[in-house]
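Dissemination and training. As part of the outreach component of the grant, students in the summer workshop were shown how a complex can be specified as a set of sequence lines and then modelled as a single object. The example used during the hands-on session is reproduced here so that future cohorts can follow it. Participants entered these lines:
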Amino acid sequence: MTTEEVVVAITDIITTIAPDEDVTNLDRSERLRDQIDLDSMDFLDIVMELRKLYGVHVPEEDYKELATIDGCVAYLHPLLADKELHCAASA
Amino acid sequence: MHYDAIIIGAGMSGLAAALRLAMFGKRVVVLEKHELWGGLNSFYTKDGHAFDVGLHALTNFAPARARGAPLTRVLRQLRIRHEELRLGEQAVSELRVPGATLTFTNDFGHFEAEVERRFPDQRDGFRDLVAEVRAFELDAEDHPERSGRAVLEQHLSEPLLVDALLLPLLYYGSARERDVDWGQLVVLFRSIFLEGLCRPQGGIRSFLNLVIKRCKREGVALRLRAGVARVLVEGDACRGVELEDGETLTADWVLSSAGWVETMRLCGADVLRARVIEEDHGRLSFVESISVLDRPPRELGIEAATVFFTTSTPFDYSVPADLFDARSGVLSFPSNFAADGKPPEPAARVTILANHDRWCELAEEDYHREKRRAADAAIESAASFLPDWRGCTTYRDVFTPRTIRHFTGHDKGALYGSPRKRRDGRTGIDRLFLVGTDQGYLGVIGALVSGIAMANLHVLSAAVGREQEEVAR
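and obtained this result:
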């Protein structure tokens, strides 16, 4: 997966969890919680979906790394580099 | 047979927990002793009439996509869309105390204006109260128990207003006589007044069917007529259950919606004796009558979706010494919620407090006679302040604490369970957790929140945590 595909993977997961939220023009450096309605239960779901779709483990102390899209890419790209993107909206 | 999780009870809390776990790949079985799901919010058909067991109204109304609303959270966690519920809002409800009637709607400004109109000298006190309700941090660490009544009385010097507020807060509901823990009061105040009342199109069975469908799609095994006879405890850990027919099922986690005392009893007499105290027993139960009418209540001049009333002050929310107490109660008119499809059969529901033990002492024929007498008394009470619908009644069904206990297994038909809630869901026995009423969230939405929160906290997070340890090793 490329870094752009990681962005797609994350926004796709967010769309699964929060289908009502508009993920098309998200600022990558701003906190996700400040842009869309996500709470800690939603973050648990993001982590669970990452595990379900890609077998990726994110320990609780690292949740804060996922606060922004840039943070997600930085943290997840090494873990997802050798994985295939799974979703309907392929880049 | 081994499962990741066994859920005891196919009510709203059990089903929500099951769905969350199954969504993340856990192997789940839900065990329900009744032949139908729903628990305290089940449904039935009698002589061609479709009735909801518990539902008067859904609290926690929020429009689609309302940010931060408990309903939004629940729907998101269960992956159910708001549109699927087809919620019909109430137009208005009433609080009736002697000398005052306050109406409230799903717009809180309406109620604030009502309070100011009727009790102008309480305006500032009421505002301070509401500010305190709004400021209360629900998700923060466990708050020590605090009398809700005392907080109300701190802000409000008018006992009639205190009673008027306590009417819906206690009836919707408190497991404790005459009072409710302040934290619970905040939740209930928000659910009823700040959020609002509504009814799903088709009643509770439609809502349940949505949840059941999701469960089935995620592979939840649902077993009806599968009552649990024992919870198997070895040392200080739970390892599974034994059914009434002797079959044994094991699991890594057991989540029980049977209630605190009921669950401890399932663990055995020793556990029960060691962990349950007298104060744990819930005793508040009710008699409810459902009268099918030959015309919509509106035609009789009844506009309210729900009416909470007390014909005497102070309002006495307690187990009556006699079979029932018709001085106070709740009325509900399903027709007076908006409907975007076929409206429900016109009906009037009246609920009053009742003494479970007295009902169970009755001989069979006395029981049926007393059911009629209780329903008559409740309806007579209602007719003293609302248009009389007795002449328009085509059918009537009545259920008592005995009925509630028989179908749900909850001790003493205690609808709101134990007065002592276990907010973290822990039982003190490893791998055994509570969901539902005795974990502490009430109402249909509350029950869903409970199942979701406990599944998230004790199983999903724990599972994720455990994997980290295994991966790290």
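Chain B touches chain A through 21 residues (CB under 8 Å). Students were then asked to discuss how this feature might be tested experimentally.
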